[in-house]
Amino acid sequence: MTTNNGAFAFELRDMNVYYSDKLAVDKVNLSIQTRKITAFIGPSGCGKSTVLRSLNRMNDLIPAAKVTGSVIFQGRDLYAPNVDPVEVRRRIGMVFQKPNPFPKSIYDNIAYGPRLLGVKAKETLDDIVEKALRGSFLWDEVKGDLKKSGFALSGGQQQRMCIARTIAIEPEVILMDEPCSALDPIATQAIEELMRDLVKKYTIVIVTHNMQQAQRVSDFTAFYSIRKATETEGKEKRWGVLVEYAPTTQIFSRPESEETERYIRGEFG
Q1: DSSP secondary structure string, 65-94?
Q2: Residue 50 — φ and ψ, nearest 5°?
Q3: What strands, in cross-sheet order, belong to the sheet with 37-41?
Q4: How many independent structural domains does the chain possess?
Q5: Looking at the domain assignment, is residue 55 inside a domain?
């Protein structure tokens, strides 16, 4: 995969996502800026997580999922026939809704990815683990307990460990799917502060139901919503659309779409 230093990490062009023959998201056109935080907001079922998973081909793991149109990452279509999805996921890491530690020590959780990539020297692994844990603001809390199970950490610490595990393989982008939904307010604040620090080095795309969180942490916000139609046999079909995308301050203070304004006011969701 080729790289460039353009202003956009991703450019989505008429991207559609289908599950079997059912349209899930329709014609998303979106340019995501490099080293900025972009938030995806919208009601449940609008396709924001589906779009997020399309950015590193996680939808490939879902039977019958199909992406059409283009997802351009640094000048290359991620869905071109000769693109390796494993390499895509190395360069575009993901942090999930609930912390998902491996049943291993803290050290081995962080070293797992580098080992898969062929790093064997203990000194090198030690450096990678320390750097990743420092990068996730967790080193000072766990440096004396690296042999302890990752499951022994609190929920917020587990999520920061999962972020450390992601950055240990040095991706260029970090995708976050509701990373704070299972956390208390103090842990959420820690993750938000971490995001604002990580964006100095990484492009971050976050899905959140929490509009205050989108306002606090993101530079740009994309609002997705739902469209409905009645099929001939009387069944209702639903799919997601991108309604509006703009700097976060604009989305929350002077949105162009009335639908965006109604969602932000809490009239539906």
Answers
A1: EEEEEEEEETTEETTSTT--HHHHHHHEEE
A2: -60, -45
A3: 76-77, 65-73, 8-19, 22-33, 236-247, 220-230, 37-41, 203-207, 173-177, 92-95
A4: 1
A5: yes
Asked, for residue 231, whether it belongs to a domain, the answer is yes
User: Can you give the pLDDT at residue 230?
Assistant: 84
Query: Per DSSP, what are the bridge partners of residue 70?
Result: 13
Q: List the structure tokens of 10.
A: 């991703």
Q: Per residue in 116-142, is it b (16+ CB within 10 Å) or e — as a string? A: eeebeeeeebeebbbbbbebbbbbeeb
Given its phi and psi angles, is residue 50 left (phi above 0), alpha (psi -120 to 50 degrees) or beta? alpha
pLDDT above 70 coverage of the chain, percent: 97
Structure tokens belonging to residue 268: 């539906």
Q: What angle do CA 238, 244, 245 make, to 5 degrees?
A: 125
Q: What is the DSSP string of 183-217?
A: S-HHHHHHHHHHHHHHTTTSEEEEE-S-HHHHHHH
Question: Which is it for the CA torsion 92, 24, 261, 184, positive or negative?
Answer: negative
Q: Which domain, by its residues, includes 177?
A: 8-264
With respect to residue 3, please indicate whether it lies within any of the assigned structural domains.
Answer: no
Using only the alpha carbons of the chain, give its radius of gyration.
19
Give dist(CA 267, CA 11) in Å, integer. 31
In a domain, 269, yes or no: no
Q: Are 218 and 206 in contact (CB under 8 A)?
A: yes
* Cα–Cα distance for residue pair 160/140, rounded to 1 Å: 12
- From CA 69, how far away is CA 246, in angstroms rounded? 22
Give the SS3 label for residue 223.
Answer: strand
Residue pLDDT, tens place only, 85-114: 999 999 999 999 999 999 999 999 999 999
Q: Specify the CATH number for the domain of residue 182.
A: 3.40.50.300
pTM: 0.93
Tokens of 158: 């587990």
